[in-house]
Amino acid sequence: MAMKFTILVSILVLVLIAAQADEAQGLRPITVAVNISGIVTCSVNGSANAPPFANALVELSCGGNVIASAVTNAQGVFNITVNPLRVTLNNLLSSCRVIVATPLSNCNATLPTAGTLQSALQVAGTFIRGILNNVNLVPIRFRIVV
Fold first, then answer.
1. Could you tell me the sign of the dihedral formed by the alpha carbons of 103, 66, 33, 121, in that order?
2. CB-count burial class (<10 Å; 0-12, 13-18, 19+) for 58
3. Average pLDDT, the chain
4. Which residues touch 65 (CB under 8 Å, ≥6 apart)?
5. 116, 59 Cβ separation under 8 angstroms
């Protein structure tokens, strides 16, 4: 067992050294990190003028399966980092949605209890940090879906 662990660590070190050498030669990074962030407001149509939706459970759903989640902070901000081995960027953009699982009525009792806030995703930007090619995605606009 110790030998397998040593071999695995050796392989990881070699991959990191090779990636740093590739980057030094101007080659593309080998890993993509995907960050999804946004602000959830207490509104049925994603109005920026509505108050923030604090402590809301936000889920990333792809093909009906929840693959990651986060909880909004006091300002309604959430951030989800996606494991690039679980879903591709193309799949994220075409078949994944950000869903607010917490009912809207939790932030405002006059809002509907049925339906969920949902949004498709779009690319907000990319940047390279070390061997990671970071892709930032944001919700297009949250709307209630019944």
1. negative
2. buried
3. 76
4. none
5. no
Model pTM score: 0.72
Q: What is the DSSP string of 89-129?
A: HHHHHHHEEEEE-S-GGGT-TTS-SSSEEEE-EEEEEEEEE
DSSP letter for 72, please: -
Tell me: the pLDDT tens digits for 53-71?
999 999 999 989 999 999 9
pLDDT value for 138 = 81
In DSSP notation, 40-70 reads -BSSSS--TTSPB-TT-EEEEEETTEEEEEE
Single-letter amino acid, residue 139: P
Summarize pLDDT for 114-124 with one digit per residue, the tens.
Answer: 888 999 998 88
Q: State the Cα angle at 27 between 29 and 37, rounded to 5°.
A: 30
